[in-house]
Amino acid sequence: MHAAQSPSLSRRTFLAHGAGLMLGATSAGHAVAAALATPVPPGYVRVAAAADIPAAVLFSVACQESVLRFGNKSLPYPWTLCVQGQPLRFNTQDAAVEKLQACLRDGITNVDCGLLQVNWGWNAQRLGSPRRALNAYANMGVGAVLLREHYEATKG
Question: Rg (Cα) of the chain, in Å, rounded?
Fold first, then answer.
């Protein structure tokens, strides 16, 4: 297992600046602000369209939840787990899947998975399997549906 440290931007920081980030403000953390300056990748556009949510919202959530700096770019990283509040990054999907499987064997289900950090404990049936939970498109699909359901439940 090769885990790396998570970026310094916290969820609390994102929530404090979330509205500004959605509007493209630059006062938020460097990693998320840099990622949001990146055009929304086509995969996010396709998955968001299927769930009838704005692609920029889906990409923004992924940037907040799993962003990792690559040189001078910051992008969401698919092989990200947050195990009981401890963020972990893996070099390969296989390594991330192995860690998730080990957690589940040990009875640990409070694990946020993948690009959108979908929680295994609450969404295991939607995620299907550890490998699917860490598949970028499957994870985006589940996250997009959850966002759509939340929007419908709260009417915006």
Answer: 15
Q: Is the dihedral of CA 50, 109, 66, 151 positive or negative?
A: positive
CA distance 104 to 16: 33
Q: Which residues pair with 119 in a beta bridge?
A: 112
Nearest to 114, CA basis, from 151, 79, 153: 79
Paired strand residues for 111: 83
Cβ atoms of residues 28 and 19 within 8 Å: no
Predicted TM-score (pTM) of this structure:
0.77
How many CB atoms lie under 10 A from the CB of residue 148? Answer: 16
Which tens digits make up the pLDDT trace of 4-23?
433 333 333 333 333 333 43
Q: Cα(138)–Cα(114) distance, rounded to whole angstroms?
A: 9
* Tokens read off for 130: 């550890």
